[in-house]
Amino acid sequence: MLATSYLQANEVEQAVTVAREVVDTAAGLKSYRVNSYLDEFRHRLRQHSDSPVVAEFESYASTQR
After folding, report:
1. CA 53/CA 49 separation, integer angstroms
2. Helix, strand or coil for residue 1?
3. Tens of pLDDT along the chain (65 residues)?
4. Model pTM?
5. Of 26, 23, 20, 19, which Cα lies nearest the Cα of 2?
């Protein structure tokens, strides 16, 4: 997915922006595949846990499920 590509390029803010849109979409879909992708993305995001945008995203994502 695009968010993972941004994350691999160390574009954390852009990755989180894209992933937030996915979270919003996933909330309406209840798709196992999309939720699995988000779980994997959040796991990869942990390496950037010192970033405020990551903390904000984690907080947002955890309330949308």
Report:
1. 9
2. coil
3. 899 999 999 999 999 999 999 999 888 887 889 889 999 999 999 999 999 999 999 999 999 86
4. 0.88
5. 19
